[in-house]
Task: structure prediction
Amino acid sequence: MNSLPFPFPLAASDVIHRRAMILTALCQRDEGFCAIPVRGIRQETLGAMLRLYDELFLRSFLRASFGEIAVTLSSRLISSAGKFIYARSASRRMQHAEIRMSSDFLFRLSDGPFELNGLSVSTPQEAFLVVFEHELCHALETALYGQTGHSARFLTLANGLFGHTGTRHSLPTRRQEAAMDGFLVGHRVSFPFEGTTLTGTVSYIGKTATVMVPNPRGPYRDKGGRRYAKYRVPLSLLQKK
Result:
């Protein structure tokens, strides 16, 4: 990768120093973000995070390429820790770009270390930044080449800018946490409901478990004609059967 419009590749010491500068700046402006576990993160903090990365690592290349990139926090993003989304107009010009970060992952983290993208970090805040760096590379690759993925080119960018050596993380999903507690899709469980106890089968696990409970008047029917009612149950209320 020659003649990129920003310093590349960066020395490992430079990466660590610049990431630390960004973390310090964000913690100075947002106490909720600096708490462990994280209590919250303000929208202006997300905007500052993007601006600092663009200035310190990319010489404001992303701002020049996209104008504004929206950085949002989503509690509905539960299967991945971050996501880059973009749309083009009819003329193929970039019309909208967004980096969506998962608050579901961030707010559940407490004790490190955490393994992400080939790096080991010790705090939820550092984990959040490393996830953001990954999505930033998707935005950058799109700006430079018109498309993005997890190709060798992407890995070269991520490694040269942020020291990433992989694209996976070990942050537990809701489904993985439930599995560690012994709950999987297809398992029979019971749970309290309006003064009684209901028993059914887990059909989905997200922030809550979806449990299908046999009910002769239920609106859901399986291939055998058996009817069920559907309940969304906090994972903490489930009991194994």
